[in-house]
Amino acid sequence: MQVAIALFPRNTALDAVGPYEVLQRIPSIDVVWVGHQRGEVRSDNGMLGLICDATFEEITEPDVLVFPGGIGTRTLIHDDEVLDWVRRVHRQTRFTTSVCTGSLVLAAAGLLDGLTAATHWRATELLESLGAIYTPQRVVEHLPQRLITAAGVSSGIDMALRLVELLVDREAAQAAQLMIEYDPQPPFDSGAPAKASEVVRSRADEYYRQRS
């Protein structure tokens, strides 16, 4: 079973690596990193490089597509090559999925028209301008349409565990969860806008502005 994870300049690394760490634990799943060209692409802050193993032209029939997010998606929503590829592979995927602002690309490709979808909380207006309906759920499923979207960054792990359940079975997903020892017990409870104080939200916005 082939899972294609898209890579592009200025991706958010955990959006891609989180699902990878879950999916690659399953022996029947082969993960391939796909992008415009083979070779290294740098993350959104430029500090981390990930390697594309194949080009979009080379990967034509993946069983699953995972499209991560990052500030680079703001360019991809206008990239006809990427959007055409997403539409083409979606015709035969078992599931087409996104993490964080990867849902912007799915929406720009027309896959989320009129559907609820998740994305990073700072991209809600842009997502809705592309035809989707934002919802603050961590993972949003439209199984008849074979679409799953996840909210910001770390939620890709949750999405990937659910994906393993759908592709294999519940015990396989639980085994993957155990293998990565995913047992979240964060020291703070400010991981969603509704939970964070105004001071914390302001600090987050300040950090985003400094990095953009």
UniProtKB/TrEMBL annotation:
Start and end residues of each DJ-1/PfpI domain: 2-165
Stored CDD domains: GATase1_PfpI_2
Gene Ontology BP terms: regulation of DNA-templated transcription
Gene3D superfamilies in UniProt: 3.40.50.880
InterPro entries named in the record: Class_I_gatase-like, DJ-1/PfpI, INH-QAR
Any Pfam family: DJ-1_PfpI
Name of the protein in question: DJ-1/PfpI domain-containing protein
Species assigned in the record: Mycolicibacterium anyangense
